[in-house]
Specification:
Number of helices: 13
Strand content: 5-15%
Radius of gyration: 19 Å
CATH class of the largest domain: Alpha Beta
Largest sheet: 8 strands, parallel, barrel
Number of domains: 2
Low-confidence stretches: none
Distance between the termini: 18 Å
Pfam families: NMO
Catalytic activity: 3 propionate 3-nitronate + 3 O2 + H2O = 3 3-oxopropanoate + 2 nitrate + nitrite + H2O2 + 3 H(+)
Oligomer: single chain
Keywords: Detoxification, Flavoprotein, FMN, Monooxygenase, Oxidoreductase
Cofactor: FMN
Protein name: Propionate 3-nitronate monooxygenase
CATH topology of the largest domain: TIM Barrel
Number of strands: 11
Shape: globular
Order of helices and strands: EHEHEHHHEHEHEEHEHEHEEHHH
């Protein structure tokens, strides 16, 4: 990785397979991206250190790892209980008693265990989402040869990351699918990716990776022209052969009409972009900010609905470029995205 005005040097092509947590990004997808000359990231979020280690061991190509930064939640027991009771009827068809679900507010996603793993088994890049790690974490990873990337959604977040000493920035525009990387979920940024790349490239001296809604070769070329060193893609890979996305998710992406994504906190208590469905329509207005407690509350419902083939109650994460998500080999998608470089 070079300066923000230079080029991505970690792989042949400046195209990165984004880490999509929850099963969509699996080793086969990372390997497929690499086979086309791109660079892939494993999603460490929601995994145990043991599961992440097994995925790392399955790869023989260079790759990065993404982790979720744990943070405090301001969700009260009363707010949680109110929302749990509101969702009770959603779980009834699956035998779930959501109204009495426990509030899991102190889950740090096995943060220290995964950091220990990455210090013991270094990878070229570790990226962080949902906030910034401590300076001690950045130094420790740098000491074992790992470059640290911070996901940012505003210029202010980017400048804070620079002060921390990270090595590169992932500028995530509002078009991105899945969870926003905002450091302040109660005030999510809404900056389009092109404008964010311009701001961050001009306002910092670090390499910038553009992310958010990219699904065409012309967008990759444009973002590189505005100062990005590389471009990360996720949603456009969800329907490929190597994707681990559920059949319900893939089918919903194929069937959705135009302009169907919205930003919602209804499923996890944190802003995320996905396809609009009945669950969002019914509960977005009353859903509290409260990750990870709301994530744990709705997780069994989402799993049961996916197993039953009911997209109405599944978190169908998708960026604004979802209509151009391709089927077939992921390597072909990466090659096509780089075809105008």
């Amino acid at each position: 990785m070079t300066s923000s005005t230079g080029s991505w040097t970690a792989s042949e092509l400046p195209v990165i397979g984004a880490p999509m947590a929850g099963g969509a990004t699996r080793p086969a997808l990372v390997a497929a991206v690499a086979s086309a000359g791109g660079f892939g990231f494993l999603a460490g979020g929601y995994k145990t250190p043991e599961a992440l280690e097994a995925e790392m061991a399955a790869l023989t190509v260079p790759f990065g790892v993404n982790l979720f930064v744990p943070g405090p939640s301001t969700l009260t027991e009363a707010e949680f209980r109110r929302y749990a009771e509101e969702l009770a009827d959603e779980g009834t068809p699956y035998g779930l008693e959501l109204a009495g679900a426990p509030m899991v507010a102190d889950d740090d996603d096995r943060w220290q265990g995964k950091l220990d793993l990455l210090l013991d088994r270094p990878v070229p890049f570790v990226s962080f989402t949902f906030g910034l790690p401590g300076s001690d974490v950045v130094r420790a990873l740098a000491d074992v040869g790992t470059q640290v990337l911070a996901t940012v959604t505003t210029l202010g977040e980017a400048q804070a990351a620079v002060e921390l000493g990270v090595h590169g920035l992932i500028a995530q525009g509002t078009e991105a699918g899945g969870h926003s990387g905002t450091h302040a979920p109660e005030r999510p940024g809404a900056v389009p990716v092109v404008e964010l790349v311009r701001q961050v490239a001009a306002g910092t001296s670090l390499p910038v990776i553009a992310a958010g809604g990219v699904s065409e070769a012309s967008q990759v070329r444009e973002l590189l022209g505005f100062g990005a060193s590389a471009v990360a893609v996720g949603t456009v890979l969800l329907r490929t052969d190597e994707s681990g996305a559920s059949a319900v998710h893939k089918d919903a992406l194929a069937a959705a009409g135009p302009d169907q994504t919205v930003i919602t906190r209804a499923f996890t208590g944190r802003p995320a972009r996905g396809l609009r469905n009945g669950f969002i329509e019914r509960h977005e207005a009353s859903a509290p900010i409260g990750y990870p407690a709301i994530h744990h509350l709705t997780r069994p419902l989402r799993a049961a609905a996916a197993a039953a083939g009911q997209p109405d109650q599944v978190h169908l994460w998708a960026g604004t470029g979802y209509s151009r998500a391709r089927t077939g080999p992921a390597a072909a998608v990466i090659t096509e995205l780089a075809s105008e470089l």
